[in-house]
## 1
Amino acid sequence: MSDILLEVKDFNVILDGSPIISDLDFSLNEGEFLTILGPNGSGKTVLLRSLLGLVPHSGQLNWHRKPRIGYLPQGLNQMSVRDMPLTVKDFFSLKKLKSAEVTAILSLVGLENAVMNKKAGYLSGGEFQRMLVAWVLASQPNILFLDEPTAAVDIAGGETIYSLLKDIWKRQNLTILNVTHDLNIVYAHSTHVLCLSRFGHRCHGVPKEILTPDVLNGIYGADVKFYTHKGV
Amino acid sequence: MTSQLLLSLVSGIFIAGSAAYLGTLMLSRKMAVVAGPLGHLALPGAALAIVYGFSISLGAFPFVVLGILLIWLLEIRTRLAMEALTAIVFATGVATAFLFLPIDKAEAALVGDISKVGIYETLASVILGSAVVFTIKRSYSKIMLINIHEDVAKTEGINVKLYNLIYLSAIAIIVALGVDLVGGLMTAALVAIPAAAARNVSTTLGQFGAVSGLFGIISAAAGITVSAFTALPAGPLVILTSAAIFLVTVPLAKV
């Protein structure tokens, strides 16, 4: 059994006087791929940002081992830097990395060395996201916080990014905390799921064991069905 | 070349060069226009300096610091947009200045007067301009990452409050120095125009900073030199040279 990396107890977040997260308890083991699932407005991003210390919160947040965090936020995409004369090489130089290190980390995410001199703002959505994954991995994190990492790419590109992340997760023995509202991602990639809802319903565990139709209805507040093909 | 022209050139080049370099960070944070209202807030200080006969930059500096503190505090307290707060600060500065600024002496405060700069003011421009360039160069990658995504910068272990303080202090120094060169009405142009022109022709961050600084230096040198041989004021000539460079770069814009 894996060691506990993070323990969260009696966790509360109040923003502008409104409770966003109340009395949340869960733990995260080393090597887990935990997806925080829920509809819009359920507090997924707020939870992720408060675990990063970016949002005021109360309760216990116990790291059992010093985390080296890599963070892929929502909304950081090629359009964010399109106005700047910023090449991929420049983007990595913000971390003071040497060219050889950048080349090695880019190849890890399937990007050619030629991309180094391209403007980061003019990469495709998928290329930019791969570059960001490489940039985050360059700091050698032991835990990745991902907030809708495929929001700015199409379905095929999104699947490629998740396959890449899963591959890196296995190879580098990382722990991943991922936010999404996409049930497919949970079933295809996550070892565990933490559900949040606007109506107070919660669940935590192995997806195929706990995501029953009743639980999903409670989370989404509607009749949600999930179909799998045979053999999946 | 007269010694007065030399002092004006040295002073102008250091102010404009450092302002243009800092401007690349302000442009990437979409904050270039903020320097304008801060320059306007410097007007009461410039007015005091004119009335009591001391350096305009010295008079402007505490008022600019006050302006930055006001915007910073009001933004935290009200969460109003930066544009709204700078408009309030701008109006307050101009209104206060015109309460006691002698109108017949207003020109130096409004459009600057680098042609009468003394040795100590030149020395201050060289030292402070160099200090801003040195400090910003050392902090450039961290401030740029904060500009790109503040939360990512925080999770990468960057002390965002500290670097914002360094950045705002540099702006305060540049605006106070800029009032001497182009006056309180046009300080935004010192940071915004060379940086915008440099963005048009640069493909890398390194080029962006260097080219912007170079455009700032060329604008100051050309504007001050032309002013020395005509009866025209240096401040507006510096800005117009800068604007001409920008126009030349427009067809070359790399988009």
## 2
Amino acid sequence: MSSHSIYKEKSLAHSIEHDLQVSVAKCYQCGKCSAGCPVNSEMDYPPSVVIRMLQTEDPILEEKLLRSYSIWMCVTCEMCYGRCPMEIDIPKVMDHLRELSLQEKKVNPKAKHIVQFHKAFLDSVKYTGRLSELGLIADYKMRTFALTQDVALAPKMIARGKLHFIPERIKNKLSMKNIFKKTINKKEKPE
Amino acid sequence: MKIGLYPGCSLNGGSREYKESVNAVAKAFDIELTDIPDWNCCGATAAHNLNHDLSLSLPIRILAIAEQNGLHEIVVPCAACYSRLTISQHEVNGDEELKNRIAGIVGLPYTGNVKILNVIQFIQDHILDKLSEKIKTPFAHKAACYYGCLLVRPHGILKFDRPEDPQTMDEVMKLIGADPIDWAFKTECCGAGMSVARTDVVGNLSGRIMEDAVDRGAEAIIVACPMCHSNLDMRRQDINKSLGKDIKTPVLYITQAIGLAVGISPKELGLQRHFVPVIFPVENVQNTIKVN
């Protein structure tokens, strides 16, 4: 596919076509994705504009995308993909842009809490193999200083037997360590 | 035949009543469910947002262990886990090179032949035939079947129900005596993983869902996803604050509604664990709270 690509060699549109087999050129700007997006009002660029910016292959606009809040606000509900008449897998494009934004340290400052939440989540999985809800909340609070958030919920969750105090661990913890070492910890430098 | 169960982290923690009700219903229909041994987290939103290879490797380890243990069919009640497992299987199975690379990362042999069922498919395949004869107390309420995002999208991969106005849950609910309503927010997003980082967004999105269901006369919201449940149930205070209302309409997992209809006790179904009590008739108070 890439040998006859219509895109410039170094553009994001090119790497999206090459790595994801998704062609942003198919988009004719009908806007259904932006209309159906549940978080469009929170975004700096709604989905159809994200795709349009990629189509231009303009490095300035690509830079704006990697630094945008939109890519982190996307909740991957798949509505845009479900309604796209050209079946462009926009959520997959969003994942790709997020991964690049993180690798190139271009995460939008407003999205800091969202990224910290994801990192806290994955830390729990890395060390125990499973998500510890209590551990996640504690880790997230330490990372963001959102210390008072949801404190009223905790006793109610405990009363309903919904919080484990001792995190569950899988037996084969080494397998988790290896998976992380060969994937996310390969590219991302420790902070 | 043994059917594997992938509970996932939510069903083992904050949404344990979902697992309790799945197991209770399976038992009532003489179905043997076996937890996949040493299962790990599917990676959820966090993994696919941050690293593609990780987002594929975590689900593939689960599927590889199911294969190793001779579990050819697994039920994944959490819609989000179901989505991650199905999408990963689809992507990896369609690309031999990727398949070998991910199997290498996971360190287990993987052929990719496990059949993955969501909770509705599990009910359709293993319960539906015997359901009518087992009904003791019909669930005679107007119900809004809320499918959310990941049970029906992306349709090209999941190939389940209709992506707009799905009907499978509605059909099951009719069988247990409910009156499923027509409404507009069946497949709208509740805000999902933003529950902690952007609680305001969840209050807003889930608020629109609750409001439409209640305005159209729903006495119960029926869900098949722990994130939909926790956002509509545990986050009810945020929803009511966003709407300026005091909505008390309960949210039940479909397996809890079935359980009640076939005579399983509310306690065994974990109804006492909800934040919004499951009490009928529902008395909603409109416009009692001033917004901010």
